[in-house]
Amino acid sequence: MAPIRDKYTIHSKAVVCQDVELKGDITIGSGRSIVHPKATIFAIAGPIVIGSGCIIEEGAIIVNRRKEVMRIGDDNLFEIGCRVESPTVGDFNTISTRARVHHTVRIGSYCVIGAGCLVVPTEDEFLDDYTVIYGPAAERRTWSGRGKVQEADLREKARRVSPRDASKIQPATAWRRVLASVSSIVSNVINGFRTADTIYMVSTKLA
């Protein structure tokens, strides 16, 4: 196997912190994306292209194991310790803490992979828009989309908290705590709206 050649193209308004591990051909474009300290982005077999407004938290791992370009859309949230190998990721998705998504899965938009969920099918699969995967058994249901405007607003606030000048960023404990708090609020609000959807669905069936 030929050695991996590093090539980084990072938009001037994107924030890539110190202590981030990058390898291969990686593009972070359109600005407003944030890559936290200790995150890992490995373009092992093919390039990785990350869109605008994405938040990649500490310990998150993004890997491209295919020769095709791995395309990640806009406004995606990769929470602490998750691992994503999906060849394509749409827009406004949430990959929760310590979730893992295999390279056989292509993700649509407005999907949620719950905390600790493993999505590792042996054959290629596409997750439709608004798919929610949750629980230890990786159960699935469809989100109505209720609350997505509020979710987008909270993500924008999370980006505004972060420093703009990547060259000045240090892995400061206080800054990490602020971002973790904002991310926690975002997750809680999202889960609240989806819990309300579930209660409504159950009550409708019982009525």
From TrEMBL:
GO terms for cellular component: dynactin complex. Keywords: Cytoplasm, Cytoskeleton. Belongs to the dynactin subunits 5/6 family. Dynactin subunit 6 subfamily. This is Dynactin subunit 6. SUPFAM superfamilies: Trimeric LpxA-like enzymes (SSF51161). Its main location: cytoplasm. GO terms for molecular function: dynein complex binding. Part of the dynactin complex that activates the molecular motor dynein for ultra-processive transport along microtubules. The keyword Transmembrane does not apply. GO terms for biological process: mitotic spindle organization. It comes from Mycena sanguinolenta. It is found in: Cytoplasm, Cytoskeleton. InterPro entries: DCTN6, Trimer_LpxA-like_sf.
